[in-house]
Specification:
Chain lengths: ~425, ~260
């Protein structure tokens, strides 16, 4: 993919093992994943799985996806060596994978373009999606505009207010934005509402799910479409430094940018994988999104995974200064990577993330998304642990333009 | 204790369909839910499904979402659900719990099945538990002697219908339409075909739910199904009434109309 003129291969999309890291036929990663959905949706999920299975081995599909990634999304994205920022990490060398430079400003575009092509193969003309901060909604509206699909975005009424700029962007792109007024009026309720739409309109509609959570085959398919992040970065790190990084760091909400960054490195035993969740106002405050670090195993939105829930299985509302990490569930493959010990997950507070946000802006002239700032803050800590010889790859999953309102308030700008 | 088997056998002997009513525990209040369900039984419901209020009811339309939200705001917990089952079962109606899977998963399958059986419950309906994931629950239910009801839908293939009915005991729940719970102007024409397709794979009673809101609709469904399931229409009456007693009476009026419907 990094080589000019090369075509994306099936191996780039799905990996070439043998990592034993694909889910079984029921979509299970060990105990996690599966399908916990109304029976009415099973045929649609089977259809998506079958169409995707065929597409990922089809040269024409790979060519189309590759073409869109290059000529529309702006891939491959570059690596940036951030020397001045690294000084704060005890001298460890931090290298950023610049997903912030993609069209629409975040890694979300990779998954969205892949699923928009799947939608056409399904013969469906309408897509629906959930969105929290609005990034997945904007990306979906963008791909729908490009491919001529009708687009409806479900967004919590609270989020619509917090992210009014993204609501305007989606409308400008021709999408209908439906504010969701039930429950906590945030991302989890937007997902509930999108599922209700899907079960009603499944004949004409594809649910363009935005992360590696949800029922099978979404965790696997979304991962595969995000996987290009790590595939490129692995190649680029070898070119830049002559070796693999000591660690890969990424922020984890639902988990798609992190899986995208991690997956190509899972077979590389010497490479540590670190995911950073939103610790919000701190674990003890109860206002956080520490699904993997402080949650328990349960079922949410169609999948068995770690969930923030009370002792009777009621979902607990999450909190993060970053809307994109403000989710009480997480993709099942992360649950599996956690339990197997292959990846390690940590919490980063709102304050730690905002400090890293500001530091990257001042030392490197790059304003990151607040989501990605959690990974940056994590890398600063990790660098001090690993020492000055270490090289750390950080997935800079998005840019911070959308976060100016939050930053103005937080820093009194 | 009245079992599902005796209910459906009796309805069949009377040459009619059974009437199944749904209400969530804790709505309009903890005691009000028991009183409302008792009023539905008095008015002619043969079976009562007690909903276990859950924070993320993704198969439910606005009416049930509203009721469930109120129940959770009332502080309704699983102990209250069990107490509701106990109160309703005491009226003589076969009483089930309808719940999303996660609350049972968290509570513990064996513990939930045992507690439900001890409360006089006869089984569960689990709308987001697929055959592939159902084995632990079916084992726990069998051990406790309670029935397991699962759903088939208009989109279900023959293979899926077979897989679902093979997991069911008591009856099979046929979702009349592709969509969420809630009363509709008409009952979807696909329901009759789905019931016929389901009967090719099982001798269990087949009950139709989703979108049934009037006595006339109940009569229409009773012509081809073994049971008619009504939820949102009763809840709407409770939501719209000025107080609990008036809501109960209004829901009972509708239940009497439905009970006539299933006997037409």
């Amino acid at each position: 993919m990094a080589n000019e003129g090369s075509i994306l291969t099936a191996a780039d999309l799905v990996g070439n093992g043998p990592h034993g890291d694909d889910p079984d036929m029921h979509g299970k990663f060990g105990l996690f994943g599966g399908r916990f959905v109304p029976e009415a949706l099973i045929p649609a999920l089977d259809e998506v799985a079958a169409v995707y299975e065929k597409a990922k081995n089809d040269a024409e599909f790979l060519r189309e996806f590759d073409h869109l990634l290059r000529t529309y999304a702006g891939r491959p994205t570059t690596l940036t060596d951030v020397r001045r920022f690294s000084e704060e990490a005890g001298g460890a060398r931090i290298v950023l994978k610049r997903e912030d430079l993609t069209h629409t400003g975040a890694h979300k575009i990779n998954n969205v373009l892949g699923q928009a092509l799947i939608t056409k193969r399904l013969g469906k003309k309408r897509v629906i999606a959930e969105t929290g901060a609005g990034q997945h909604g904007v990306a979906t509206a963008t791909a729908a505009a490009l491919l001529g699909l009708e687009c409806v975005i479900y967004m919590g009424a609270v989020d619509c207010e917090r992210q009014a700029l993204n609501v305007a962007r989606m409308k400008l792109l021709g999408a209908t934005v439906v504010p969701v007024t039930n429950g906590s009026q945030t991302l989890k309720d937007a997902i509930n509402e999108a599922f209700r739409d899907w079960v009603t309109n499944v004949d004409t509609t594809h649910y363009l799910f935005g992360t590696v959570a949800g029922p099978h085959p979404f965790p696997e398919m979304v991962r595969d479409f995000a996987r290009i992040i790590g595939v490129e970065a692995r190649r680029q790190m070898l070119e830049l430094t002559g070796r693999l990084p000591d660690a890969v760091c990424a922020a984890v909400g639902g988990g798609s940018n992190a899986i995208g960054a991690f997956h190509a490195f899972i077979g590389d035993e010497g490479v540590q994988l670190h995911g950073y969740e939103a610790a919000g106002r701190g674990l003890d405050s109860g206002e956080h999104a520490l699904t993997l670090t402080a949650g328990s195993v349960g079922v949410l939105h169609g999948s068995r995974t770690y969930v923030l829930q009370d002792d009777e299985g009621q979902t607990i509302e999450s909190h993060s200064i970053s809307a994109g990490l403000d989710y009480p569930g997480v993709g099942p493959e992360h649950a599996w990577l956690k339990d197997s010990g292959r990846a390690t997950y940590h919490g980063i507070t709102d304050d730690e993330a905002m400090a890293a946000f500001s530091l990257l802006a001042r030392t490197e002239g790059i304003i990151p998304a607040i989501e990605s700032s959690h990974a940056l803050a994590g890398a600063l800590k990790l660098g001090r642990e690993l020492g000055p010889e270490a090289t750390i790859l950080v997935n800079l999953s998005g840019r911070g333009d959308k976060d100016m309102g939050t930053a103005m308030k937080y820093f009194n700008l | 204790m009245t079992t599902l088997q005796t209910v459906f056998a009796k309805a069949k002997a009377d040459n009619r369909a059974a009437l199944v009513g749904y209400l969530p525990a804790g709505f309009p209040s903890k005691d009000g839910a028991i009183a409302a369900a008792a009023a539905l039984v008095e008015a002619g419901c043969d079976v009562i499904e007690i909903g276990l209020p859950y924070s993320d009811p993704l198969l439910d339309g606005p009416t049930i979402q509203d009721a469930v939200h109120r129940a959770l705001s009332n502080g309704t917990r699983i102990a209250d659900v069990m107490r509701t089952v106990e109160g309703v079962a005491a009226t003589g109606a076969a009483t089930l719990v309808m719940t999303y899977w996660n609350p049972i998963d968290r509570y513990g399958a064996e513990r939930f099945a045992r507690d439900l059986a001890n409360a006089g419950g006869v089984g569960t309906i689990t709308p987001d538990l697929t055959p592939e994931e159902s084995e632990p629950w079916r084992e726990a239910s069998a051990a406790a002697g309670i029935d397991t009801v699962f759903l088939v839908a208009p989109s279900s293939t023959e293979q899926r219908i077979k897989a679902v009915v093979d997991c069911c005991t008591g009856f099979v729940y046929a979702a009349s339409l592709m969509g969420v719970t809630g009363a509709r102007e008409t009952v979807n024409a696909a329901a009759e075909g789905l019931v016929a397709r389901t009967r090719q794979h099982t001798d269990l009673p087949v009950c139709v739910g989703l979108g049934v809101g009037t006595g006339a609709q109940a009569a229409e469904v009773a012509a081809y199904a073994d049971g008619v399931i009504v939820g949102s229409a009763f809840i709407r009456r409770l939501l719209d009434a000025p107080d609990e007693a008036a809501g109960r009476e209004s829901a009972a009026v509708l239940a009497r109309d439905m009970a006539k419907g299933v006997r037409r």
